[in-house]
Description:
With 265 residues, the protein is an alpha+beta fold. It is 23% helix and 21% strand.
Amino acid sequence: xxxxxxxxxxxxxxxxxxxxxxxxxxxxxxxxxxxxxxxxxxxxxxxxxxxxxxxxxxxxxxxxxxxxxxxxxxxxxxxxxxxxxxxxxxxxxxxxxxxxxxxxxxxxxxxxxxxxxxxxxxxxxxxxxxxxxxxxxxxxxxxxxxxxxxxxxxxxxxxxxxxxxxxxxxxxxxxxxxxxxxxxxxxxxxxxxxxxxxxxxxxxxxxxxxxxxxxxxxxxxxxxxxxxxxxxxxxxxxxxxxxxxxxxxxxxxxxxxxxxxxxxx
Length: 265
């Protein structure tokens, strides 16, 4: 029982799916979340429910432990979290200098911006180029459209932004981790870089890492730059994030100033 981001209405989607199925298998369930609530509801509804015994003591399986205490049947299969593949940067000998900022792409299991759900599924059925929506597909789409699409996900105030990092690709890949809660890696080795000076000229600005009580003191026109900062529990400052409000039109930037980053697998 793991949810994927087919839409922004995750909890509602998961509830609808659970209502339609007869058998539920809890794979990785956190504590006090939507999945745990749905698992307990499935038990109350007399559905057939199985739970994978937790492979470790991490918080991502606390819900599994609670479901086991509720008397659910166990299903013993081996769980292995994926390990990052070793890879070599294509431009290892001619990396741009540190005065670049980078936008890294991620894989997606939902339609591209402007693509309907029907069009998305049809592209999968026809196995069209780029239909898998991998991180590399996303990079190719950016280069074809000459546009980086903004996203509101995980941004306070739901401001649509394009995110960058001032970390070098090598440094960022060194911080690569698998995020079980999001069902993906936090970073994938595909990105696009532009010089910081040009970034500033098109309205890209560094993020403001601040505690929540200082949010109201930020000028309204700069609140899209806010990032919650409560170290050591919440500290993303190592990412050296920059943001652009809204879609970023790359047509306004010369091709000679745009650098793409890919690694060989």
